Structure formats: C-alpha cells, structure tokens
Structures
1.
Amino acid sequence: MNSDAFIDIAFNSANVVAFTTTIHHPEGIAKSGDFGAFNLGLHVGDDANIVNHNRATLLSKLPAQSQIQWLNQVHGIELAQISTPSTNPITADGQLTSTKGAALAIMTADCLPVLLAAKSGDEIAALHCGWRPLAAGLIEKTIEQMKTSASDIQAWLGPCISKQHFEVGQDVLDAFKQQDLNYSSFFQPKSKAGKYLADLQGIARYKLQQLGVKDVTQLARCTYTEEDTFYSYRRQPNTGRMASVICLK
C-alpha cells in the first residue's frame, strides 16, 4: 500500500478506526487528468468504474465485514442515523451510528470534514462542514442527538481550505455574527470592501468548545495550497474528492 494515500487519525478508543485519503492511489496507480489517481466522488464526472474500484480499495483498508455509508451531500444540516449501512447514498451532510462495522464517509475538496467519537468507543459521527452547514447548526444538531455527553466526545477537524485562501462575502460573516459576535475573530477583512478570509477550522473548534467538546484535534493542512496531496474545488472546479472515514470495529 502507498503510505501517501492515507492519513491515519488517532482516537482515544481502540474500537475506532479513522483516516482521511489523499489524491494518491494506495496501489501506486498513477493517473493524469483532472481527477488524480484516487478520486472517490461519483458525482464529479469521473469514470464510474474507476471510482467504484477506488471505493472498493478504500473499503479494503477497513476492518473485515465493514460497509461504507456514502452520502449525497447538499450543504445542509440533515443528519442520518445509521443502523445498517445502505449501498445507496443518503441525502444528508452528517451521519451518526453506534453500529459496529458501519463506516461513515464524508467527501471533501475544500470543505471541512469533522469526525466525532465517544471516548468509550461506542458511538461515532461524520460531518461535512462547509460554511453553510456550520452556520446552520450541523455541529450543534449532531452533539444534541448523540447519546454521549459532550465532555466525553473527541473531535477531529480535517484538512480544508485555509484561512489564507478562503475568501467569502459579507453575507457569510453576517450569518455567523447573528449567532455570536465572537465569530468575527475568525474573519479577517480584506482590502476589498465586503470581502473576508474565513477560518473554517477555527469556527468549528469554537463551536465544539462552546458545546462542551474540549478534546479537539485538527490537521492544519490546506487543501488549496497542497496540490500534490489534496483535491481543491476552489483551485480547480473540475476535480475529485477525498474521503474522511470513521468506523466502529
């Protein structure tokens, strides 16, 4: 296996397996073109046979008898409760399970993947946190619906577009300020009127800590600048998708 293909994520419980992918294929397959070598998104225009092979390769990294639940992500706050994973994608931007062998996958190419796990190792969640789900309350909804108390949850924030490159408009800042004026500290004004640089990881960390989740780690890497490692929609709109996956074994 190509060690550059996966970035392992450490959670407190030995029952939790988690990792995020890169553009590199674990079998060392090189592929030129817009979709790199290890695209996992079926919705971006890539060859479906190649993507399905990539998904099968991804599954082989998980514990035996696992099944991946994929989502049709729409930048909303729908949270799917997974008892038995389906081979069909579910329209949602978050998913939650206590089922062993259920692997929750989030696809990204600049948005922030957030993985949550009970420190007891019996409950996990995976969230697709672009600015819209963040502002609309996807994290809050998930913490509320988890059986685990916030103080017993560990959170991981994955690679996303960094603050230095994520330009947004006044509407985005206003969407957060309406909830809490402290969000202003995660927006750096640009010289251009009404434009700001937004810190997705900072916003998510603040939200989690305000909700009582104190154990938060992050992979502070930028999908936009690290073109040899990650897909980035803002860098190249016609591109593939990484997956951040968490599973109970």
2.
Amino acid sequence: MPESKGRPKPAFTPPPRAQKVKVGNPRWFVPLMCTLMIVGLLWTATYYITGEQYPLSQIGRWNLGVGFALMLAGFAMTTRWR
C-alpha cells in the first residue's frame, strides 16, 4: 500500500512577549492627594478658630462645605492610589 506524503510543518515562531504594564501612579499623585486633605483640614480649622471671619467671610458657613469638599477630593484620590 502506498504511504501518503506528510504535510510540511511551518517553522516554529515563538509567541510575542507580553508588554509590561506600568502599575502605579504619576509622581504628582500622592503629594496632591495629601495636599488636598491637609488644605481642607486647615480651611475648616481656620474657619472655626477665627470665629467665622476667615478664610472667606462673605460665604459664611459655606466655608465648611469648601473645606470638606477639599478633604473629600483628597480622600477620593486614595481609592486610586497604587
């Protein structure tokens, strides 16, 4: 009985190497996060210590909102910190 011819095998090519994924944050991320939280704390403390005259007396109790918004922005950044 005649034998069938074998199929030519393609040359082995190794799979492409996976590129390294950069893990981490930019260098400015952590200093900005800490700065936002500290500035928010100082803003709120200044408002209470000065008897509601500083930092901005025109906006009244909204100074608390500004201080807490700054602190929350810094805290929200901690969820992205790697």
3.
Amino acid sequence: MRSTGSWYDVRDADGHMWQCRLKGKFKIKGLKVTNPIAVGDKVQFDIEDAVENTGIILDIDPRENYLIRQSVHKTAHAHMLAANIDQAILVATLYFPRTSLGFIDRFLVTAESFRIPVILIFNKQDLLNADMLEFEAELRELYESLGYTCLATEALSGKGIEEVRALLRGKVSVLSGHSGVGKSSLINAIAPDLALRTKEVSSFANKGVHTTTFAEMFELEPDTYLVDSPGIKELGLADIAPAEISHYFPEMRELLNQCRYHDCLHINEPGCAVKEGINEGCIAISRYESYLSMVGGQDNRR
C-alpha cells in the first residue's frame, strides 16, 4: 500500500496493515531497478512481531504489469512507479507549471508498452486564457482521436471531479504527472477525508514543489484504489529499444507494415509510410517530434 524505501506497508487479506521489511536483497531476473517492490505488488510475508505489526517480505507474486521509467540517479537502472494497475492517469497543465507534449507522449508510450489504458486530465482550467483553452481543446481532440480518454478539470472548483470519480470506480489507478500540476488537490477533491498536503507552485521557476514523497495506495471505496506517486521531473524510457518505439504510437502502429523496409525507423528511409502519413496530415507533427526525441534518447522533462 505504501513504499518508503526501506519499509513497506502491506495489507493482508483481512484488511490488517503490517510494516514490513525485505528479506535480504531482492534481485528481479532481467530487470535492473532501484526499487525491487512497488506499490500495488502482491507479496508473501511472515509476521515478525504481532504486537508491533511488523513482518518480513519473503517473495513477490508475478506481476500483471507495471509502470517504469529510467532512474534519474542510478545509471542503467529503472524505477517502478506502480504494479498491477488497471489504468494510468496523467495529470497535465498547460500553465503554471507547463507540461510539455513530449512528456505526455513519453508517458503514453510507457503505458502502451504494457497495454495499460491511460486517461489524460488537463487540470487548472481556471488559469487558462481564451487562446490557451482553445489550444487545450485541440490537444484533447488529438489524443481522443488516438483512443485516449481526456478530461478537463479544476480541482479547486470541482469542475470535472464527478467524471474523474466515475472513471476510477472499481479499478486500481495510478496518478502521475509533474510536481505542481495538482495531483494532491485532485485527490482531495475526490476523497476529502484523505486531506493530502498541498503546496503552491514556485512562481520563480514555474515548477511544482514535491508534496508526495513516497508512492502510496489509497482505498477510495470498496474495490476502488488510487496510487498517488511523487511528481516526475523527467520520464526516461526504460526497456524500450528505439526500433520498438513506433509500435507504441497507435497512429504509427497502423502503418508499420506499409513501410518499404521492415526495420524502418521512420527518419529518412525511402518508402516510409509514417513519413507519408505526416505529409498527409494523418500523424500530428507534435507526435512525430516526440517520437524523434525518444529515438534520439533526448531528455523531455519540459
């Protein structure tokens, strides 16, 4: 239910909470990660002290899926955001702070690689002027045409909150995004009893301040769980080879078997159906630019 790095809050089948440690060092075969256990994992544990409610985790059950990104601090390692989830929710803002389209697309590719459905929430509607609202509407139309559910919300006024609550019901969802986009405020609007801590966005840097330090899963109602994850500054792709990236762009995936070469990277190869799709307006320029930055391994935090 919660990971603080060295201790893990584990809920048993009866709903009782235990504070658990790992038995020795866990190494997951074929996966270099900074955190061997993620919120949402199902584990086997032994009780260490029934009075103190402590235990020792012995094993991790096989995962249905997980969200992962490159570790910012540890080269060649990845960091798991959550495991065994039904859907991922990315909270984005076009202003204060601004979420780049590259960051949105990287999140979508990461989720697509594990076939995890994504909901895009564009928060802080109240901060947008007429031109920005029009641009946001165009973005929602673009991503909806690709099969992603999009919502516009104002956490403080309550706009769109009922729609979000309905999409969460009966599922395990992970909430992600940059610091300062209003994740904690959204959760507070959905479930006021949680009373999560929030902070103002720094006007000096136009960046959010971390209020969520560790990933934590909340039970909003029976069979409805929400994982609140720490704000992400950058989202490096993990375990995805450059040649595979286009497979996780739905609009490119439809054209892959039409390229002249089966190993086409869609950059400057002749007979590329993806490049033709761009020229014909079937693929948005912003999406193709995101693709190129991913293939090139560029940072896309903003």
